[in-house]
Amino acid sequence: TEFVTVSELASMMDVQSTQVISACMSLGIFASINQRLDAETISIVASEFGFEVEFVSAEVQDAIPTVEDKEEDLKDRPPIITVMGHVDHGKTSLLDYIRNATVVDGEAGGITQHIGAYSVTREDGKKLTFLDTPGHEAFTAMRARGAQVTDVAIIIVAADDDVMPQTKEAISHAQAAGVPMVFAINKIDKPGANPDRIREQLSQMNILVEDWGGKYQAQEISAKKGLNIDELLEKVILEADLLELKANPNKNAVGTVVESSLDKGKGYITNMLVEAGTLRIGDVILAGRHSGRVRAMHNEHGKELKEAGPSTPVSILGINGAPSAGDKFHVMDDEREARSIATKREQLYREQGLRTQKHLTLEEIGRRL
Ligand code: GDP
Ligand code: MG
Question: Which of these, 201, 311, 313, 325, has the minimum number of CB atoms within 10 Å of its CB?
C-alpha cells in the first residue's frame, strides 16, 4: 500500500520537500517530489524528523458511508480562496478590503463576525469564499491533518520589499498541494514600489508571470487604496473556472473545521466550511473527536441560517467539544453512532498522546472524505 507523496509528507511535517528527498536518498531511495512512498519508507523518514507515524486503514477507522455522487447531482460551487504571503505584505488588508467592498445590501446591517471564512457575491452574481484565518498557519495546520480545502491561492508580495522566506514557503505549500496560484503584487501606491523587481525575483524561482510570457497570472494592486482588486478577483475567477468546481448539494453535509472555541455563555462554537451536501439545523454531526447536533447556525454577518450548501462558511453551536482546524466533519443519520465514533477517536487520541507528541496519522489514499 502506498500513502502520501514526498511533498505531502514534507508539508505534514512542515519541512522542505528537498529535506525529505535527501532523507530518502540516504536510504538509497531516489524519490521525486510527487512520488508516493510506502509505509516503511515513511516511517523511517518521519522518525528522522522526530515523528512517529501511525497507519490506519480507512475501513477500520470508521464506518462513515461514502456515497458516490451521480454526475447529474453535481452542481457548480463557489471557489474557496486562501491568501498567503510574508508578514506585513498585506494579507489582512486585502482580505478586509474585499470583505468591505462587496457587502451586499441587506447584509450590511449585520455585525461582521470573524468566523474564519467569509463569502462575497460579485455584481455578476458569482460567489467567492475566502478563508481568513491567518492564511499561512491555517493552511499548514490543515495540511498537517491532510485536509485540503483551498481551490485557489493568492500569493501576495509587497512591491516595496522582496520575495521573502514566507513568500517562498507559501509558494511551495501551494505547489505541494497542487493548488493554482495568482500573484498579487501589492503596495504599488508606495513611492518605493518596484513591481518588476518582484517579477524578476519570482522568475528566479521558475515562476514566470503572464505579462512576462509565463503561465502565472499576476496583478499589481494596492490593498490599502483598493486599487485593481476587481482585476485581481477576475484572475482568481479565471483560475477557478478552469477547475470546474462542483459538489452535490443533495446529501448529508461534509466539510472541514476551520476553527473552534469555547464561549462561556454559548458553549462550543465551531466555525466550519461546508464542502458538499447541505447542512441543516438539527443535523447530527461528527467532527473529529467530537459530536453533537446543530443547535444554531450563523453566517459571518451574524444572520441565522436554516441551511448551508457547498462552499458556505458557517458558525454553529451544538458540538460537545472543540475539534481542531482541519478536522473533517460529517453529518450522520444516527446520533448514537456519531457519538460512539467520536468516543473511539478520543480514546485513540488519548493513547497516542501518552506515547508521543509529534504524531502523524496517515489514511490510505483514496478514502479521504
Ligand atoms: P499582513 O501581515 O500580511 O496581514 O499585512 P497587513 O495587511 O497587516 O499590512 C501590513 C502593513 O502594510 C499595514 O500597515 C498596512 O496598512 C500596510 N499596507 C498593506 N497594503 C498596503 C498597500 O497596498 N499600500 C500601502 N501603502 N500600505 C499597505
Ligand atoms: Mg495579518
Answer: 201
Which ligand is nearest to the Cα of residue 133, counting in written order?
2
- H-type alpha helices, 178-217: 195-203
ipTM of the modeled complex: 0.99
* 88 C-alpha to ligand 1 centroid (Å): 6
The answer to whether 320 and 338 are in contact (CB under 8 A) is: no
DSSP β-ladder status, 246-247 and 254-263? unpaired
Crossing angle of the two packed helices 6-13 and 39-48, in degrees rounded to 10: 30
- Cell matching residue 306: 436554516
Query: Distance between CA 223 and CA 50 in Å, rounded?
Result: 40
Model confidence, pTM: 0.80
Nearest of 7, 72, 8 to residue 362 by alpha carbon: 8
pLDDT tens track for 107-129: 555 667 888 899 999 888 899 99
In angstroms, the CA 121 to CA 118 distance is 10
C-alpha 346/C-alpha 278 separation (Å) is 26
Residue carrying C-alpha cell 505541494 = 176
Ligand 1 pocket, residue 93 CB under 6 Å = yes
Residues 324/289, Cβ–Cβ less than 8 Å:
no
167 pocket-lining for ligand 1 (C-beta < 6 Å): no
Best mutation site among 224, 227, 228, 232 for ligand 1 pocket (most ligand atoms within 8 Å of CB): 224
The pairing of strands 152-158 and 127-131 is unpaired
- Comparing CA positions, the residue from 288, 298, 89 lying closest to residue 198 is 89
